[in-house]
Amino acid sequence: MDSQRTQALKLLKACPMMRLKDFAAHGIGPETLARLVRDGAVVRPARGLYQLADSSGDAARILAEASVLVPKGVICLTSALQFHELTLQMPSAVWMAIDRTAWRPKIDYPPIRFVRFTGPSLADGVERHSIDGIEVSITNPARTIVDCFRYRAKVGLDVALEGLREGLRRRKVTSDQLWTYGTKGKVWSTMRPYVEATVADGT
């Protein structure tokens, strides 16, 4: 049991978040993990997910936690805006896209709000970032802004406009990129006057 404990801690130092089945693949049983949790060395932020107790709980780590629990999901909308530093909004849940036909996971923590994208749109404009050793799929700045306009009824037009202003001001997006994704997303006619006004303002 002690050897399992040592190995579990070593694995978590190498990979900050792991699922129960990941430990099982290394011959580490649930009783070892339960003891580590009781001892305060390991915490369980969500059912079946474990990390070291001294791990930080910042916004980026929460995105990584969500990605471990939903490996095929893509961080999007306000959560992606926040990651790219294009909004001051602090979303109360992680916005994540899943395939339109995928089973919707039931997750207690972190809170996740799901939207459904078609197969091709789950890959178009998606970047992969390493957060604490975890590969996280996140829509790029231009795609994120366009999606916020597409889902403005869910996230609010003010959020989409903030992302647009900051994206252009910080030069993280160009008008051409917005046109490309806006056209694909069939929302360019809605976005166009806002983009043109923002560019005219010199932001």
What this model shows, in words?
- It holds the Pfam family AbiEi_4.
- It comes from Xanthobacter agilis.
- Residues 19-53 form the AbiEi antitoxin N-terminal domain.
- The chain has 203 residues and is an alpha+beta fold.
- The protein folds into two domains: 2-52; 59-200, no CATH class.
- Helices cover 47% and strands 19% of the residues.
- The protein has ten helices and eight strands.
- A three-stranded antiparallel β-sheet has the order 1-3-2. A three-stranded mixed β-sheet has the order 4-5-6. It has a two-stranded antiparallel ribbon with strand order 7-8.
- α6 (141-150) packs across α9 (175-184), α8 packs across α10 and α9 (175-184) runs antiparallel to α10 (188-200).
- The termini are far apart.
- The mean pLDDT is 89.
